[in-house]
Design goal:
Blueprint: H1 4-23, H2 27-30, E1 34-39, E2 45-50, H3 57-82, E3 89-94, H4 96-116
Parallel strand pairs: 2-3
Antiparallel strand pairs: 1-2
Helix pairs in contact: 1-3
Organism: Helicobacter baculiformis
Family: Belongs to the RbfA family.
Subunit structure: Monomer. Binds 30S ribosomal subunits, but not 50S ribosomal subunits or 70S ribosomes.
């Protein structure tokens, strides 16, 4: 079980990054929804997950390139607003759990519909 400090760190990082994305000049990044963050134990690296359900492959590629380009600005913003001594290296990933959840819900709905018949 994760401790409260780690969860608070992850939640804070997620909030700081969402704030930083909304302040950037790239409209593609304004609309991104960050779903969760997970920092390593020593705060050296952080995995940031985003909702990509409504993006096609070309849009995903463009957004990941824009995120890579914006990473130094994002890290600088996190350092400025958090008061942390260091900011973790950021890596961005698609949150596939949302797609899996949607598929499971549709399966359950189908099963429920068939059982009523």
């Amino acid at each position: 079980m994760e401790n409260i400090h780690a969860k608070r760190l992850d939640a804070g990082l997620l909030e700081y990054l969402q704030e930083a994305l909304s302040a950037l000049g790239d409209p593609r990044l304004h609309a991104l929804t960050l779903t969760r963050a997970h920092c390593s134990k020593g705060k050296y690296h952080a995995h940031i997950y985003l909702d990509g359900r409504f993006l096609d492959a070309q849009e995903r590629s463009a957004i990941f390139k824009a995120l890579k380009k914006a990473t130094p600005l994002l890290r600088a913003h996190v350092l400025q607003v958090s008061g942390w001594f260091k900011c973790p290296q950021l890596s961005f990933h698609l949150d596939e759990s949302l797609e899996q959840e949607a598929r499971l819900e549709s399966l359950f709905a189908t099963i429920a519909k068939e059982s009523k018949c």
